[in-house]
Amino acid sequence: MKTFSLSCMVRLACIAAALHLAGCTDAQKGAEQDPEMAPLRHGWVDEQEMASLEDDLGVWPSYGRTYSEQRFSPASKINAANVSRLGLSWYFDLDTSRGQEATPLIVDGVIYLSTAWSMVKAIDARTGDLIWSYDPEVPRKTLVKACCDAVNRGVALWKGRVYVGSLDGRLIALDAKDGSVAWSVRTTDAGKPYTITGAPRVIKGRVIIGNSGAEYGVRGYISAYDAESGELDWRFYTTPSKDGKPEGAASDSTLAMTYPTWSKGGVWRETGGGGTVWDAMAYDPELDLLYVGTGNGGPWNREIRSPGGGDNLFISSILALRPDTGDYVWHYQTTPGDSWDYTATQHIILADLEMNGAVRKVLMQAPKNGFFYVLDRETGEFLSAEPFAPINWASHIDANGRPVENPMARYPETGKDWTAMPGPPGAHNWNPMAFNPDTGLVYIPQQEVGFVYTPEADFEVRDRGFNLGVIHPHLPDDAALVNQIGKTLKGALIAWDPVLQKEAWRHQYPGPGNGGVLTTAGNLVFQGAAGGELHAFAADTGELLWSAPAGTGVIAPPISYELDGEQYIAWLVGWGGAFPLAAGEMSFLSGKVVNASRLLVFKLGGGKELPESPSFPEPAIVSHNVTPVLAQAKAGERKYTQYCGMCHGDSAVSGGVIADLRASGAIADEEVWKSIVLDGALSGLGMVSFASELSEEDAEEIRAYVLSRAASSIDRNEAQPAQ
Ligand code: HEC
User: Fold this and answer.
1) Could you give the CA distance from residue 720 to residue 723 in angstroms, rounded to a whole number?
2) Pocket of ligand 1, candidates 140, 197, 647: which has the most ligand atoms within 8 Å of its Cβ, to mutate?
3) How far is the CA of 699 from the centre of ligand 1 (A)?
4) Distance 310 CA to ligand 1 centre (A)
5) 347 and 388 in contact (C-beta within 8 Å)?
6) Which of 61, 48, 40 is nearest to 157 (CA)?
7) CB 713 within 8 A of CB 622
8) Which of 30, 200, 365, 516 could be a cystine partner for 432, CB 3.0 to 4.6 Å?
9) What is the pLDDT of residue 717?
10) CA pair distance 345, 212, nearest whole angstrom
11) How far, in Å, from the CA of 427 to the mean position of ligand 1?
12) Residue 299, preceding bond cis, omega within 30 degrees?
């Protein structure tokens, strides 16, 4: 069966190649053995391919399509004039019900994608049939180290192999032909709270991979592995060694610069200081520079992390490195001495822009802190920055490229609460933006989500849950107030002119957390919404030209490619990620959506119907004849927020991805509750034991809090009392 479908694909690939006068001419390694036919290039991507993508409409070979990460497709058969005829061509159901954040890749008619739990699939783009699938069997207990769901943002392809970073910290190379494992290496210390959610990139035969975990307590770094053998080539730490001494790493040469920016005491020496490289990378082959974005400081609160201050290099920074050696070339820190989780890991785009009469090679980023940055990518010189969203932590960026801060924003130093815009979700998060060279505009999934930072006076490093140095706020038990807070949260797709540094147009959504973006030569911009709608806009004017239901919330960006003369838009959909896990009732702002994880593929005139999605599983909250002790419930409130809220939802209201504890039978039974929370009875499902952090009394307090939340939900008629 498989052999038949493969040789059939080979034939089609060659017909397509003859039509396009491209590909299928050079004999490549790993080819099918039919001498009559040119070989199928299983996942074949190399330097030559990456250098000639402009006219190669049939491929999306790397995360941002090109090394410049513009997410611009040169295909234009689907365009502003005909996009209203776009319809579903086929779909593929995924075997996971967690958030889907990945960018699918396509080479030679085969789609390679990763899903939640770092699983990988190869799918025949002509038939929609599965060719192979690979499951790295990530232990479900890894979830307790992952801030924002079991997500994965994509694979990399290189010379017949597929590379994926697994949530539990492995970098795995698969044979693109059959999904068998070529090699697998551990890239993180399994004893530490590291995870991997980002997509690898391959540059000149080296696989570049970062990691996450700065909320929990890790030291950020980026590594390069030999694509062929899996051997470690170099590693660059984004924060200094704790004694400022060299450690045989590529970052050693920067110690004289970084070490003095950290205090001699502080928790950073214990936890590593953060600065994780969890998402953005880009590469300029001409300058031979690899650009990476680094994450927040850990703990967030600088007075705990690095008492007495300091910029804390290289947290919240953009780094330019040599891809062969990891050697440092330049850096630019977007948020010196970060205390707000203002990561600079957001998508980096490279472009050549005409500014003041000269063409500049620039790097653009819209990080969490709300400023849109344009830098000279050769030197790192600051060119301009303006806010692309409402912000109150800084008034502007001065001529030297340094933010002019609002002194009240420094809550660790003032010791007072700080009501911030934006909060930790950022004015823009990982959801990729896109640049269209025809319009000169950058399309940004922008959002407005405020937050109150309360410094945590009695901070101690914990081995379960977040280590922030901030007492996490939570929604009040007052429907009117929750409603009011909800009105302050917003989301939009904005078109940003990077030269004029101003907004060109916007499309407003009811809530934040909307999907990544694709733009095309058909004068189009595609974006899916958290509420489950797929959209296409005119790239120049922002006019909404097409909409279709996705059957689930959308966070991932789509891709486009041509196959056998037809243009397609392919999209991974599936609600999840940080928002529905942590935001409680706020995750319903865009509407209540379920997770229905799929790959959706559209073409002009496509007429396939999507099966109807199940309705949102309203939690069946029943009253139990247990009245929680008020003082106990009060004590449990902060503990719930500290240890449970990031998965079961703010104020014990679940966004529908993980169990709503108000509706759990376990809250009525002390023993069952203990067996789950302290003894790890459900650890196989990802609900680990919290015994290292919580006593029996703590667990009882949390139970009392959840019982009180269940009771007040019933009072508010959110649920039916038990008969
Ligand atoms: C890292 C994510 C995560 C954290 C943090 C977490 N849980 Fe869970 N919890 C899960 C998952 C996953 C399940 C399995 C059920 C599911 O997937 O919905 C679960 C299930 C449960 C259940 C059983 C629910 C049922 O189906 O009846 C209880 C009770 C529970 N958790 C209590 C807690 C408490 C109390 C805390 C804080 C001390 C906590 N959990 C923290 C992920 C988490």
Assistant:
1) 8
2) 647
3) 13
4) 38
5) no
6) 61
7) no
8) 516
9) 61
10) 10
11) 29
12) yes
- Quote the ligand 1 centre to 645 CA distance (angstroms): 10
Q: Is 677 in the pocket of ligand 1 (CB under 6 A)?
A: yes
Closest CA relative to residue 259, chosen from 299, 311, 327: 311
**Reported confidence tier of residue 354, pLDDT bands at 50, 70, 90:** very high
Q: What are the Cα distances from residue 489, in Å, to 479, 486, 503?
A: 16, 5, 19
Q: Judge if the beta carbon of residue 685 lies within 6 A of ligand 1.
A: yes
Mutation test of ligand 1: which of 141, 212, 687, 698 has the most ligand atoms closer than 8 Å to its C-beta?
687
Q: What is the largest CA-CA distance in the chain?
A: 80
Task: Enter the tokens of residue 693.
Answer: 């952090």
Can you read off the two tokens belonging to residue 703? 């139970």
Name which residue sits closest to atom 1 of ligand 1, judged by CA.
Answer: 144
For residue 628, name the pLDDT band (cuts at 50, 70, 90): confident
Nearest residue to 319 (alpha-carbon basis) of 243, 385, 237: 237
Residue with tokens 């977040």: 466
- Give whole-number Cα distances, 382 to 296, 373, 612, 707, in Å: 20, 8, 50, 53
Pair 145, 162: CB distance under 8 Å: no
Tokens for 328, please give them: 């440092």
User: What are the CA-CA distances from residue 564 to residues 57, 489, 567 (Å)?
Assistant: 11, 44, 9
Distance 650 CA to ligand 1 centre (A): 13
Amino acid at 557: P
Q: Give how far Cα 709 sits from Cα of 30, 486, 639, 699, Å.
A: 59, 19, 14, 15
Residue 101 contacts residue 555 (beta carbons within 8 Å): yes
Are the CB atoms for 99 and 575 separated by under 8 Å? yes
Which protein residue has the closest C-alpha to ligand 1 atom 27? 664
Buried b (16+ CB within 10 A) or exposed e, 313-351: bbbbbbbbbebeebebbbbbbbbbbbbbbbbbbbbbbbb
663 close to 621: Cβ distance less than 8 angstroms: yes
Ligand 1 pocket residue status of 705, Cβ below 6 Å: no
Alpha-carbon gap, residue 428 to 449, rounded angstroms: 10
CA 143 to centroid of ligand 1, rounded, Å:
10
Percent of the chain with pLDDT strictly greater than 90: 87
Q: Cis before residue 314, ω within 30 degrees of 0?
A: yes
Nearest CA to ligand 1 atom 34: 644
**Comparing C-alpha atoms, which of 206, 191, 217, 176 is closest to residue 47?**
206
- Tens of pLDDT along 4-19? 333 333 333 333 333 3
For ligand 1, say whether the CB of 644 is within 6 Å of any of its atoms: yes
In angstroms, the Cα distances linking 718 to 424, 485, 585, 621, 711 are: 29, 19, 12, 8, 10
CA 419 – ligand 1 centroid, Å: 30
Distance, CA 676 to ligand 1 centroid (Å)? 8
* CA 116 from centre of chain: 12
Q: Which residue is closest in CA terms to ligand 1's atom 40?
A: 644
Cβ of residue 148 lying under 6 Å from some atom of ligand 1? no
- Is residue 720 very low, low, confident or very high in pLDDT (cuts 50, 70, 90)? very low
* Chain Cα centroid distance, residue 664: 30
Pocket test for ligand 1, best of 581, 595, 648 (most atoms within 8 A of CB): 648
Q: What is the pLDDT of residues 630-686, one digit of tens each?
A: 899 999 999 999 999 999 999 999 998 899 999 999 999 999 999 999 999 999 998
Residues 250, 236 contacting (CB under 8 angstroms)? yes
